[in-house]
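Bug #2210: token dump truncated for Exopolyphosphatase?
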Amino acid sequence: MNIAIVDIGSNTIRLNIYRLDKKEYSILFTKKYTASLASYVEDGKLSRDGIDTLKRTISSIEEVTQFVELESIHYFATASLRNVSNQDEVIKEVKDDLNVTIDLLAQSEEARLGHIGIEEVYGQSNGLSIDIGGGSTEIAIFKDKQIVKDFNLSDGSLSFYKKYVEGILPTQDEFSQMSDKVKKSLKKNSDDLPSFDTLIGIGGSVRAIGKVIQKNENLDSPLEFTIDQLKTLSKKLLKKDKKTLVAVFKVAPDRIHTLTPGVVILLEACKDFKVKTIRISNKGIREGYLLDYLNKKTTN
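Reproduced locally. Full output below:
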């Protein structure tokens, strides 16, 4: 049995097709579409061009998936549509024109599903996680395998880039403005919260950061690095270090403009919670959505 999950993000739209065999699953096919929906937000609304880009991407996905025998296909959106005031109109137009239903996830539901994906990899009972998306950042604290607090920083790597950066890479002033914004957002939410030695990251921004650090530091894996290595990357990006930029172009060329904003968010979050080590989960919200769907299907 094959099931397709489509994650409509603010920066990219990702199609994963999973093959299920009893209680096990594996990725049969994956494809990423760089739609950059957050860049089409004007006056709080997804523009006509943005809606058309979304519809074209969904049409392409529908064409790809018609050649695969699927039990079902599921589309969900997070901050990409949650943060725009015309979300209902966009979802209705997609349904009317393409006969595709988009499941718009609430912030708390996004955090819950991301945690299910993390638990698949690490299985730890207590900890701190971060999901840096294109349009928002979700931070969650979990205890006894349950989320006890989650909050949204309202900006992600792409929305930060759009708001603060004029060129491809930020200047010192632009970097400082982004840092200050993250600090203020964290201060509103993280007062009186415990510190954590380790943070678990999910999402494309954190994975790209891990790959660049692995390349620069000659690490065995991109799935774990230290706060000091993250600080070093931050300084090199700010100085526009040639070796570092070459590494970015090699491992994450489509994120050349959003990588530094992502680093700013991750670095300030790590400082705020006194994190020493960052681990990256290669499973996240898409796997969480799949497992949650299968669990509900079995229960019903």
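Output looks complete on our side. The first helix runs from residue 48 to 65. Marking as cannot-reproduce; reopen if the truncation happens again.
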